[in-house]
Design a protein that fits this description.
This protein is mainly beta and 123 residues long. It contains no helices and eleven strands. The strands form two sheets. Strands 2, 4, 5, 6, 9, 10 and 11 form a seven-stranded mixed sheet that branches. The chain has a four-stranded antiparallel sheet with strand order 1-3-8-7, with no helix packed on it. It is globular.
Amino acid sequence: VQLQASGGGLVQAGDSLRLSCAASGRTFSRYGMGWFRQAPGKEREFIAAINWSGEITYYGDSVKGRFTISRDNAKNTVYLQMNSLKPDDTADYYCATGSYSIAQIITSAYDYWGQGTLVTVSS
C-alpha cells in the first residue's frame, strides 16, 4: 500500500488549504482513512478520520468546525479541507490507512502511512 500526500505549503493565518492523499496498492474503497499531524517536538496528533463510504467522520478537538475530511473512492483519494488556519496548525500532515473499513482515531490502528506534507501558517 502506498500513500502520497500533497497540497501543503506556506499560508497566512485565516487562509484555507486542501490536502490530498492518493492511495494505491489495494482496493481503496474498502478501508477507513485518517489524517494526523506532527509539529516539531510534539507527539503525533489525530486530526480526522473517515470510514470506507465517507458517511462517518471523526475530528480532533483542535480542528473541529474548521477542517473537513472527505474521500473520492473513484479517484482513490482522501482530502482534508482546512479553513481558518492558525499558526498552531503548522505541522507535517500525514495520511494513513489501516486494515478495517471503519473510521479510527488512534495512531496504532493505522498500518500504512504517507510521507507527510508540510503546512506552515504564518501570523
